[in-house]
Amino acid sequence: MSVKIGNIELPDFPLLLAPMEDVSDPPFRAVCKDKGADLMYTEFISSEGLIRDAIKSRKKLDIFEYEKPIGIQIFGGDEDSLAMAAKIVDVTNPDLLDINYGCPVKKVALKGAGAGVLKDLDLMVRLTSAVIKATSLPVTVKTRLGWDDNTRNIEEVAERLQDIGIKALAIHGRTRTQMYKGEADWTLIGKVKNNPRIKIPIFGNGDIDSPEKALEYKNRYGIDGIMIGRAAIGYPWIFDEIKHFFKTGEHLPAPTIEDRVAVCRKHLYKSIEWKGAVVGINEMRRHYANYLKGLPNIKDYRNKLVTLKTFEEIDEVLGEVAETYSGFEFEHNVVELINYHEKCPV
């Protein structure tokens, strides 16, 4: 059975790539799409930034045909601004519009946006309603369990947002005060999904870093799909690996060093193509350590990669890495859930 979000048809139990600030740009999305992501989202975009015509905010609206289905995610704490931003998003023709009520970082949450809206559910309903009225796109929401352990109000949030017309809900299994610490608690996500009043798709998010855990949580909590964020950074293979494990009960072979270098090269090429050589090369530097994780004595190569300034030089070093470590057998699923601190993966 397929999963439907409005008129978007996704495969049975889709795997979603989470919106991650400074990560989920078109180059990163391209390699995740290649490796099995069923639905992807842009980095979150400030509604105020879009209205002010801020270049960085507008650039995040770039989406490409091969990425579809894709959602654009916006955040903000003002009804008029969110409604106006929704109209701007409409013009870019994504498949859906997502609202972020999950980002926990201070500069967002303490200004009454992102997870900050969890402290005022009436405001959340008004903001969401304003967006739904302003766009013809299916509207979805990404949020957390609540603000803190005393306000884990996600069950009420789900009912109220469904009642005003959202088409799907993705839930990160932590409160705002937890940030990304401790383990994600999926029990409330399961309660939302199994509430007989809830008819929209419910996607779970938080700490999925292996096919075994994905299958366990699918069976235990009954959710409609899983959203994966940090575990895909430097390891986009996780989508295909989960799908293969679901079908066969077996693991795909771990990607070889040649596989890793090939995907890293594509990511670099797309980064330069989209951002220009200087910015593309600079911003790619945060990804090399993740692609090469697990290799012994890799530090010298890694240090070279983050200082070189041309595609040709970097390409040459990546070739040396592939040659030096040819035949190296990686442990399966070298995945690390990076702690973002002041970043915002959801």
Task: Kindly list the characteristics that best describe this protein.
346 residues, alpha/beta, TIM Barrel, Non-ribosomal Peptide Synthetase Peptidyl Carrier Protein, Chain A, 2 domains, eight-stranded parallel β-barrel, 15 helices, 41% helix, disordered C terminus
Topology readout:
Blueprint: E1 3-5, E2 8-10, E3 15-17, H1 26-34, E4 39-41, E5 45-46, H2 47-51, H3 55-59, E6 70-75, H4 79-92, E7 96-101, H5 106-109, H6 121-134, E8 139-144, H7 154-164, E9 168-172, H8 187-193, E10 202-205, H9 211-221, E11 225-228, H10 238-248, H11 257-275, H12 277-284, H13 288-291, H14 299-305, H15 311-324
Parallel strand pairs: 3-4, 3-11, 4-6, 5-6, 6-7, 7-8, 8-9, 9-10, 10-11
Antiparallel strand pairs: 1-2
Helix pairs in contact: 1-11, 4-6, 6-7, 9-10, 11-12, 11-15
Describe the structure.
The protein is of the alpha/beta class. The protein folds into two domains: 246 residues, Aldolase class I (TIM Barrel, Alpha-Beta Barrel), CATH 3.20.20; 68 residues, Putative flavin oxidoreducatase, domain 2 (Non-ribosomal Peptide Synthetase Peptidyl Carrier Protein, Chain A, Orthogonal Bundle), CATH 1.10.1200.80. Helices cover 41% and strands 13% of the residues. It has 15 helices and eleven strands. Strands 3-4-6-7-8-9-10-11 form an eight-stranded parallel barrel, surrounded by five helices. The chain has a two-stranded antiparallel ribbon with strand order 1-2. Helix 8 links the parallel strand 9 and strand 10. Helix 4 packs parallel to helix 6 and helix 6 packs parallel to helix 7. The longest helix has 19 residues. It is globular, with a radius of gyration of 20 Å. The two termini are 27 Å apart.
